[in-house]
Design goal:
Elements (H helix, E strand, L loop, with lengths): L1 H11 L1 E5 H18 L4 H11 L2 H14 L8 E8 L6 E7 L9 H7 L1 E3 L5 E3 H4 L5 H9 L3 H11 L2 H12 L11 H9 L5 H5 L3 H10 L5 H13 L2
Antiparallel strand pairs: 1-3, 2-3, 4-5
Helix pairs in contact: 1-2, 1-4, 3-4, 8-9
Amino acid sequence: MLANMASSLIKHKKITTTVAKAKALRVYVEPLITKSKEKSTHNYRTVFAYLKDKEAVTELFTSVSDKVLNRPGGYTRILKVGNRAGDNADMAMIELVDFNEYFSGFGKDQQAGSKRTRRGKSKTATETAPKAEKSTAVAVAVEVPVAELVSETLDTAPVNEVENIVAEVAGDNLVDIDGIGPAFAERLNALGIFTFAELAALTEENIAELETKDSMTSPEEWNNWIEQAKARL
């Protein structure tokens, strides 16, 4: 189970599962990511012995290892996303830190945007700019992308509000679709489907590929789920 979850995490960069499984997966996958920094035959064979997935091993030793090359550890982040419908289990999203565009680089941006004065106080770029240029700075602030606004909210919000904000960013609850249970929702997450929009965008080729893995699901059920997802957009 951990090998399959680790392979899905490496391929899709984030998956949703229970909190207990996410914590166990972190202990399992982070040493493998550390080994991928040194590209040797021995490390390739060691990692493959754990993952048993050639595609995941290739992805790990190429794009993932290049991203985490300068990171000494802590490659994953666990974010709670609420309770699962049905058994009320604590759910969490585990992701690779360097592949999250909402969180990466905020500390550096804040340091670059502030300047320490002789008295030890910091002034932002807007405060230190001449009076004639303040109106321009305000106009630029209005055009900040939504992703940056979400990130700023996460950075300044109290701890008890961060989990609710992250739950909205992480994606829709696929269990709300009539006929999709928690177990099948986890399978869709492992395939990179987290939102209603991603479910509604499935093509006939995608459905045929999924049917080979789950013969119990009929094309009528797939079409029904896709129609429900489109109705929620």
